[in-house]
Amino acid sequence: xxxxxxxxxxxxxxxxxxxxxxxxxxxxxxxxxxxxxxxxxxxxxxxxxxxxxxxxxxxxxxxxxxxxxxxxxxxxxxxxxxxxxxxxxxxxxxxxxxxxxxxxxxxxxxxxxxxxxxxxxxxxxxxxxxxxxxxxxxxxxxxxxxxxxxxxx
Length: 153
Hints:
alpha+beta; about 150 residues
């Protein structure tokens, strides 16, 4: 019998004190449909978590990430989630949303409230459990929070 345990790699990408989030599709059968989550996804056979995340970022937003550092691992009987932190080195407008309903940059205070506004849907949508965990991590551990802001371009 095949194990039902799976692994995912998720991106905590920060730009000027805000974090890149994805509004997941409203499709039955996917994890946390219609909620805000992090970009990333399942590991394919033979992939490391970092390789999987880099592949997912190309597939989901057409962006080749620079530095990514593993900052947290959350293990349950069903899933291992690898959280990577890195800078989003390009403006949001340079990304191409290829998966999901919306994407945006959001501050910790806004996400801490539990729902984030989508301009595309013109509605607030809740946070997926993985994003709730990430927000709690960022609030609890200042070393994961953003460094000094980038100079304006």
